Amino acid sequence: MTDRDDATRDLTARGYSRRQAARIMGLFGAGVAVANAGTPLWAQRNDGPAEGSEPKVRIGSNECWTGPFPVAQAAAAKIVASSNFYHPGTEVSDFKKTLATMENVPENYILPWPGSSDPLSRIVVSFCSPTKGLVTADVSYEQPWGTAEWAGAKVTKVPLTADHRHDVKAMLAANPDAGLYYVCSPNNPTGTLTPLADIEWLIANKPAGSVVLVDEAYLHFSEHGKSAAYMVAQGKDVIVLRTFSKLFGMAGMRLGATIARPDLHEKLMRYDGKRMSTNLPLPSLVCGTTALTQAQAISERRAQMIAARTMTFDHLKKRGIAFIPSDANMFMVDWKKPAAPVKDQFAALGVGIGRSWAPWPTMSRVTVGSMADMQAFCAALDKIMA
Ligand SMILES: Cc1ncc(COP(=O)(O)O)c(C=O)c1O
């Protein structure tokens, strides 16, 4: 019996048809990331416009306004000369050790990935199926439900609470027998946190065999947020997902990590003969490892973002424009009229703001960029409102 036979058996036992199993195996087996597999065209490339068509001020795709910390860039540049080797040294274990120490989990609880999109889709395929659905907040980051729909799993969408937290009790009640409960905190696109106590409640009350996925893509930008990684250390059925695409400014370098019990990680590796995630771009690994330890640079960058966000919120308040207060590098602004034409007006002025979400067609997501970016946003806003 080959690994491939094992994986196919697992998929069909979990309710996938042989045809669906072949499709999933085809993607993973070919070594192709499934990140965008189920994602509609508009949502690919992290919601951004087509490559090369971005306006001057890029505040639409939740990217960082600047690149990796200089010391991390220097470390990445240095390793390029040794990149003829798959593993010239201890780069993978250095990454694991560094993150494990910071999060207080054993080193074998850390897996690095080329960004967080690939593991996010894998987690959906691994824990959802035609008989075990996905539960997600709405509005939230849509990639997991795109993958779940593609894989034939039921998607249950539960509105956020009035103060934009995940409504964990309603999420469990909406599907008490799901395979995966997805919590994005801070949430994309609202930038709002779900309290750790709520996540603890969900983990304590969810059905046996299911998993809670906590997506912490924006955690480093949050002033008040704390990681759910301690729940992983406690041995709970939880996977914490991280990316270096946001505060660390590495979206184009591709580095992410999952923090989870080894038996949960094993389940993510069933469909590709356990080949994924061992070979990653060395400059990305080294850049990420170095960046993680730069506590002062991290808090300075967060403070810069908060200053730009506060300036922008003050401007919106002065103009009487409603917005959702955010704890991350994005916020939803409510134009009280269809958002798509407003986005076009900003684009015509060289300012690329984000899109809206189906339940909130009058709101746009705006990424917090540099102070200069946000001054350009405010100036464009003044022109549009004039
Ligand atoms: C909440 C969330 N999770 C995951 C991702 C995937 O990012 P990446 O693949 O660059 O790590 C994004 C990207 O915008 C995101 O907003």
Features:
Aspartate Aminotransferase, domain 2, 14 helices, binds pyridoxal-5'-phosphate, 386 residues, globular, Aspartate Aminotransferase, domain 1, alpha/beta, seven-stranded mixed sheet
Short structural summary:
The protein is of the alpha/beta class.
Any overview of this molecule?
This protein has two domains: 3-40 and 69-292, Aspartate Aminotransferase, domain 2 (3-Layer(aba) Sandwich); 42-66 and 295-385, Aspartate Aminotransferase, domain 1, CATH 3.90.1150.10. Helix 1 (3-13) crosses helix 2 (18-29) and helix 12 runs parallel beside helix 14. It has helices spanning 3-13, 18-29, 70-80, 91-103, 117-127, 143-151, 168-174, 196-205, 229-233, 262-268, 282-292, 295-319, 339-348, 371-385; strands at 57-59, 110-113, 134-138, 155-159, 180-184, 211-215, 238-243, 256-259, 322-323, 330-334, 351-353, 363-367. The strands form three sheets. It has a seven-stranded mixed sheet with strand order 2-8-7-6-5-3-4, sandwiched between helices. A three-stranded antiparallel sheet has the order 9-10-12. The chain contains 14 helices and twelve strands. Strand 9 (322-323) and strand 10 form a beta hairpin. With 386 residues, the chain is of the alpha/beta class. The site of pyridoxal-5'-phosphate has 15 residues, from helix 5.
